[in-house]
């Protein structure tokens, strides 16, 4: 029974973390002006910016949702 509760809890945390990641990625794309136009004209810059966003978002999610 405890195993089922743990599994349910972990699934919920994963769902919340994924939703938070999606929201934050979109927020930072707007904030840092990472657009489809940038992707079209300068793919390397776009990839670098998206990698930066990914790192920032993962740290925020870990700090606020996982370790808090």
Description:
The structure is a single chain. The chain is an all-alpha fold and 68 residues long. It has one domain (2-66). It has helices at residues 2-31, 36-41, 43-66. The longest helix is centred in the first third of the chain and has 30 residues, at 2-31.
Task: Describe the secondary structure blueprint for this structure.
Layout: H1 2-31, H2 36-41, H3 43-66
Helix pairs in contact: 1-3
Tag the structure with descriptive keywords.
88% helix, elongated, mainly alpha, 68 residues, single chain
Q: Which whole number gives the mean pLDDT?
A: 94
Largest sheet: none
* Unreliably modeled segments: none
Q: For the CA atoms, what is the radius of gyration?
A: 16 Å
**How much helix is in the residues?**
over 70%
Number of helices: 3
Envelope shape: elongated
| Oligomer kind | single chain
Strand content: under 5%
Q: What is the ordering of alpha helices and beta strands?
A: HHH
The chain-level structural class is mainly alpha
First-last Cα distance: 26 Å
Please, how many domains? Answer: 1
How many DSSP E strands?
0
In short:
By secondary structure, the protein is mainly alpha-helical. The protein is 88% helix and 0% strand. The chain has helices spanning 2-31, 36-41, 43-66.
């Amino acid at each position: 029974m405890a195993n089922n509760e743990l599994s349910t809890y972990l699934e919920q945390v994963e769902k919340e973390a994924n939703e938070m990641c999606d929201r934050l990625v979109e927020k930072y794309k707007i904030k840092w002006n990472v657009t489809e136009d940038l992707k079209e004209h300068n793919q390397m810059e776009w990839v670098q910016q998206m990698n930066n966003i990914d790192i920032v978002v993962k740290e925020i999610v870990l700090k606020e949702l996982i370790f808090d």
